[in-house]
């Protein structure tokens, strides 16, 4: 049975590994980590709202059971991947003067 953790890790591990390489090489890791901290706080707040009000529900058999408030920990993987991948992609595709 596929769990949310396995699905999240299948995306999170390669995305974060490649993003960290780009961010470290371009000396942009500190701003990305600051953005990550902000986004994780916002994710915690809004995920708790949408899960707590029943807008989104998770199958308890497919999650670890670790929650921050009412939001399962696996739900934070999307925020982590996005906040590291987007600036890394921006930097990797940036045109540099020759």
What would you say this structure looks like, in words?
This protein has helices at residues 4-25, 29-52, 77-93; strands at 67-68, 71-72. The protein is mainly α. It has one domain (4-93). It has a two-stranded antiparallel sheet. Strand 1 (67-68) and strand 2 form a beta hairpin. Helix 1 (4-25) runs parallel beside helix 3 and helix 2 packs antiparallel against helix 3 (77-93). The longest helix has 24 residues, at 29-52. The termini are far apart.
From the alpha carbons, calculate the radius of gyration and give it in angstroms. 16 Å
Q: Classify the helix fraction into a percent range.
A: 55-70%
**Proportion of residues in extended strands:** under 5%
Strand order of the largest sheet: 1-2
Low-pLDDT runs: none
Give the topology string: H per helix, E per strand: HHEEH
Number of helical runs?
3
Please provide a brief summary of the model.
The chain is built from three helices and two strands, in the order ααββα.
Keywords:
2 strands, mainly alpha, Lycopene_cyclase_dom, 64% helix, isomerase, transmembrane, carotenoid biosynthesis, two-stranded antiparallel ribbon, transmembrane helix
